[in-house]
Automatic annotation (TrEMBL):
Protein name: Flavin prenyltransferase UbiX
A Gene Ontology molecular function term of the record: flavin prenyltransferase activity
Species this chain originates from: Paenibacillus lentus
Record's catalysed reaction(s): dimethylallyl phosphate + FMNH2 = prenylated FMNH2 + phosphate
Keyword Flavoprotein on entry: yes
Family: Belongs to the UbiX/PAD1 family.
Highest taxon in the source lineage: Bacteria
Root EC class: transferase
Key word Nucleotide-binding present: no
Residues involved in dimethylallyl phosphate binding: 169, 185
EC number: 2.5.1.129
Record: residues binding FMN: 17-19, 43, 104-107, 139
Database matches in SUPFAM superfamilies: Homo-oligomeric flavin-containing Cys decarboxylases, HFCD
Domain Flavoprotein: 11-190
Length: 210
């Protein structure tokens, strides 16, 4: 998918109340840097976790989004969680795909059972009914049987489940490296080119070059 297609169609990004809001922020920044239009939906619990984990002043939500994302090359469109009449609530509105990162077990359950009780779960339901790519990044541990059953149900429907499990084979030096790796794996699942981490084998290949 080219950047022009990304700008035309856009990608929906959902951020929920699971720990790991830093993942969602890095994903949004990465997509915007690549020139995509990001349709952003954040649950109320997601806003609370952003405040607690990142220290953002969320009293004025649109202002804090402008502070962190307005200078990026792409465009973001913020949709309040209760706006069930938003463009992305309809299958007739064309978007390329949707990512929920991080995805709480409550949101994952709602998507698995078709409970479209807010804009995020409704937008995910649209992805399913229209056959468009949907990627969920669950961030919970340990997992019990209901969590696993919900993931299996969604996986069988074609949803990509990318758990927030960082790798270490590429020699991460700090937390940002670990976050970038996971965001990169999500972009890989949608075949979006990026340079967020060094792939297995690339280091040795680079060392052998003249």
């Amino acid at each position: 998918m080219t950047s022009s297609e990304g700008r035309r169609r856009g990608i929906v990004v959902g951020v929920t109340g699971a720990s790991g809001s830093i993942y969602g922020v890095k994903l949004i920044q990465s997509l915007l840097q690549l020139g995509f239009t990001v349709h952003l939906v954040i649950t109320n619990a997601g806003w609370r976790v952003i405040k607690e984990e990142l220290g953002w002043n969320t009293s004025d939500r649109e202002a804090v989004l402008r502070e962190h994302f307005a200078d990026c090359p792409g465009q973001y469109i913020y949709h309040p969680i209760a706006d069930i009449g938003a463009s992305i609530a309809s299958g007739s509105y064309l978007v390329e795909s949707m990512i929920v990162m991080p995805c709480s077990m409550g949101t994952l359950s709602g998507i698995a059972h078709g409970a479209s009780d807010n804009l995020l779960t409704r937008a995910a339901d649209v992805m399913l009914k229209e056959g468009r790519p949907l990627v969920l990044v669950p961030r919970e541990t340990p997992l019990h049987a209901i969590h696993l059953e919900n993931m299996l149900k969604l996986a069988r429907l074609g949803v990509r489940i990318v758990p927030a499990m960082p790798a270490f084979y590429f020699g991460p030096q700090d937390i940002d490296d670990l976050v970038s790796f996971l965001v990169g794996k999500v972009l890989d699942s949608l075949r979006i080119e990026h340079n967020l981490f060094t792939r297995w084998g690339e280091q040795s290949e680079e060392q052998g070059q003249c």
